[in-house]
Amino acid sequence: MSEVADPPSLHHQFLDEARQRTQRNTRVAAVAAAIAFPVFGLLDFVMYPDYLAALLTLRLAVVLASIVIYFTAYSTIGQHYPFLLAMVQYLVCSLGLVIMVHLTEGYLSPYYAGINLVLIVFVAILPLHTLPTLFICLVVYAAYIIPVLFTPQIQNWAILANNNFFLLGTILLVALSAHFSSRLRFKEFAARYRLAQANEELKTMDVLKSQFFANVSHEVRTPLTSIISPVQGLYQGDAGTLTREQHQLIAQVYRNGLRLLDMINQMLDFAKYDARRMQLRLTWVNMLDVCEDMTTVFGDVCRRKGVQLRLNAAPGAVEAYLDREKIERILSNLLRNAVKFTDSGSIVVGLRAERDSIVLTVTDSGIGIPTDRLDAVFERFRQVDGSSTRRYEGTGLGLAIVKEAVELLHGTIDVESEAGTGTTFTVGIPANLDVLAPDAFIERREGDDRRRGEADYSGPERRRSARRTDDFAHLSVRELALMESQSIETQLSDEIQAPQHVGEDATHVLYVEDNVDLRAFVYRMLGNHGYRVTVAHDGLEGWKAITSAEPDIVVTDVMMPHMDGFELLRRIRQDEQLHQLPVIMITAKSEMESRIEGLESGADDYLAKPINIRELDARIKNLIHMRKLQQSEAHARYLEQRIRELSFSFARTLELRDRYTAGHSYDVLHYGSLIAEELGVSVDMTLRESLLLHDVGKLGIPDSILLKEGPLSSEEWEVMKSHAELGAALLRTFDSFHTVSDIILAHQERYDGSGYPRGLKGEEIPLQARIIAVADSWHAMTEDRPYRKALRSEQAIAELYRNKGRQFDPRVVDAFLRGLRRQQRISVDEIPRAEFHAI
Questions:
Q1: Is residue 251 part of a domain?
Q2: Residue 57 — φ and ψ, nearest 5°?
Q3: How far does CA 449 lie from the centroid of its chain?
């Protein structure tokens, strides 16, 4: 029945519950027996009229015993010994039938079936544990079978066997049923026990959570109020006159400090409501005065937003004992909600008295609430739009606290709305709260009518406490209205549109942020750091600004209306012209998933709020520097490609002019690259262009000399020798070819100093020029010319060795021959034996 893991207390509690259940079931079984035995006595008239008196007496005895057991179950004996009493009831009924069997025909009596019926019925209405049930069954069977066994002569063994078979089968079925039902009852009890235990633990955790929530909020509120107090002094000018920019910064700090304090206050209220510790403090309140104060303060906010706010109060005094603080919280939250969601039109506050209640309405012409979401507006932490692209900020506690406050005031609140047309909140508060809320503290003032002395109303039904002193953490209605002004775009429009005193070459930053205070702050600070800043209110406006303003970098928030930062980033990365635009994402979310999503979407950097301007400045500079490096690298690759194309064009032009040297420049490029590889020199763009353009100066040689098929005269040769200077002069006109021009000028110099045009010697000759000399000469010797036939490889090799150290650099010659041999362009036999080991 039990499990090893179950604690002993669980079994004890299960037994306690089983005692109580058995006590109840015993009474039920006694009543059932007292009714059933007389009813079944009708069979006696039919089956055994000769034994009617004895059977009737026996049935009445069972009924009488059942009645005694019924009343005993209510006594102390029944409470202490419920299982024993149940067994007695079980045996009284079962043995009563056994006696009837033996009084009539013994084992032949059809009344044996009644024994089966009693056992089966009782296991259902009076379930016991396995052992007691088995004991009862064995006693009943023994009482049935023993007298039969002592019968002198058994006439019908078949009937005896049949009746025994069914009786033993019934006993087995009842015993098994008792066993399994007992285990099932224990498992069901254990499940209920654990569920109740888990529920208690949840309640305890909920209480601890609320306490922790309240303690943390209170500890946060204390230093926050210490911050707001001096900031308020600065804002109001108590510390001297501030500049316009300083006052704007202080106003921003003050306004958002109040907003944070209000959030903490709402969370504290939420914790109190959740723990059912929020109390009513009733004072005599004139609701018309409260509504007029509210509409006056919030009217200024509405006017700046272009929304009309008016009060529609019914004639007559609307006064009652109310909790003024909670009334103000209800009305201010409803008004702030209306101001937030109404961009144009009007907001109407209605006040009227109906019978014994005060009805307060707030109607706006704002965006409205979809019908399918009306039921969720008062749920905690729920917002009509909770997505990352929601337009309006908020915690989702405002309307939930309104509902809690209304219910604490024994009132009702309803909402009627239609998307796109507006919303109406209707609050009904009873005017007799002093009667409905007996536990509330009531502050009564002297005067006629209901304003009598507080002593007259003292007593055990009223809690007495001192009048509340000023709470510096409590926000006034004016301060609540000041907080809402942060959503009014017009107050900062002039500042945002003011020109920044930076140069046109300053880094252009597009800042996309939906919070007006943060947008103004970053705009101002980045401008002070020398940036040219363009701002956008949301992702969609930011996307339009990118195409029109052409920023150097985008700094964007993540959660914005219309289009969030992730979607803006995806559009930038999918655009062929904008995909390399640097993007920094900023968000108040600190979860790693948000960072990973941003970086995977292609963000270049990621910052979490609060924004550190110096850090943002450093990251912008780093990304701009990296982008300039990337642009420079891309430009360099572009120039390299253009230079390569220009080089091939020069070489191709020269070859088209002199058909006998077609392919000469490309072959020299190949041989020169082979030499450089053997020397371990990089085949960079300078070497490639020098190899390709070494003969570009021949473009300035007259055709009569360049294309002459016979030997050149001394005068013609002097003209031909000038091609190195002509080529250098031509290339020097291009900035990218200055180094190449110096190499080309020296490619006709000789290693021993006997070359031209400057007579350079040895290492004075650039290495690239020495490489060109060997590659150029090899190609000239191994190709046909109009005035001679090409030399064989061994002849050309011999010529190289003959001029090694005179015309050619020995290292370059050896490297060239190694390369040719490695490529199997020449064989070992073609190399002079004396020079083989040098290679």
A1: no
A2: -60, -45
A3: 59
What is the count of structural domains for the chain? 4
Q: List, in order, residues 6 or more apart from 462 with CB less than 8 Å away.
A: 438, 441, 442
> Which residues are 606's β-sheet partners?
585
**Residue 514: which CATH number?**
3.40.50.2300
728 and 620 together in one domain? no
DSSP three-state, residue 513: coil
pLDDT for 421-467, tens place per residue?
889 999 999 988 888 888 888 886 543 444 333 334 333 333 333 33
Identify the domain containing residue 677 by its residue range.
Answer: 658-836
Say yes or no: 688 and 611 in one domain: no
Using DSSP's 3-state secondary structure scheme, residue 436 falls into helix
Whole-angstrom Cα distance, residue 516 to residue 256? 11
Residue 152 in any domain: the answer is yes
Angle formed at CA 679 by CA 673 and CA 681, multiple of 5 degrees: 65
Question: How crowded is residue 666: how many other Cβ atoms within 10 Å of its Cβ?
Answer: 16
CATH code for the domain in which residue 726 is found: 1.10.3210.10
Residue 49 and residue 159 share a domain: yes
CATH number of domain containing 360: 3.30.565.10
CA distances in angstroms from 809 to 675, 751, 774, listed in the order given: 12, 6, 8
Judge whether 241 lies within some domain: no
In order, the DSSP letters of 529-549 are TT-EEEEESSHHHHHHHHHHH
Distance between CA atoms of 531 and 624, rounded to whole angstroms? 12
Work out whether strand 605-608 and strand 583-587 pair parallel, antiparallel, or are unpaired: parallel
359-389 pLDDT per residue, tens: 999 999 988 888 877 877 888 655 555 444 4
Q: Are 403 and 378 in contact (CB under 8 A)?
A: yes
Number of H helices, E strands in the chain: 30, 13
Q: Which amino acid is at 199?
A: N
> By C-alpha distance, which of 505, 508, 567 is closest to 534?
508
Residue 482, H or E segment: helix 477-484
Residue 394, helix vs strand vs coil: coil
Question: Do residues 452 and 522 share a domain?
Answer: no
Give the pLDDT means over successive 10-residue stretches in the chain (839 positions).
57 82 85 86 82 86 89 86 86 85 81 82 80 86 82 77 83 85 85 86 79 69 76 78 80 78 76 77 90 86 86 84 90 88 90 89 89 78 49 66 90 89 92 85 58 38 37 61 55 50 82 86 88 91 89 90 88 88 80 69 83 90 87 71 65 60 77 91 86 79 74 81 84 80 89 91 92 89 76 88 91 91 76 53
Residues 6+ apart with CB under 8 A from 203: none
Contact 100, 111 (CB under 8 A): yes
Domain boundary among 202, 228, 259: 202
C-alpha closest to that of 232 among 410, 493, 475, 491? 475
**524 - beta bridge partners?**
none
Q: Which residues contact 18 (CB under 8 A, 6 or more apart)?
A: 129, 185
For residues 696 and 781, state if they share a domain: yes
Same domain, 709 and 828: yes
> Which of 373, 18, 23 is closest to 185 using CA atoms?
18
- Is 233 inside a domain boundary? no
Residues 151, 299: one domain? no
Q: Of the candidates 202, 233, 262, which is a domain's last residue?
A: 202
792 shares its domain with 667: yes
Task: Report the C-alpha gap between 327 and 347 in whole angstroms.
Answer: 18
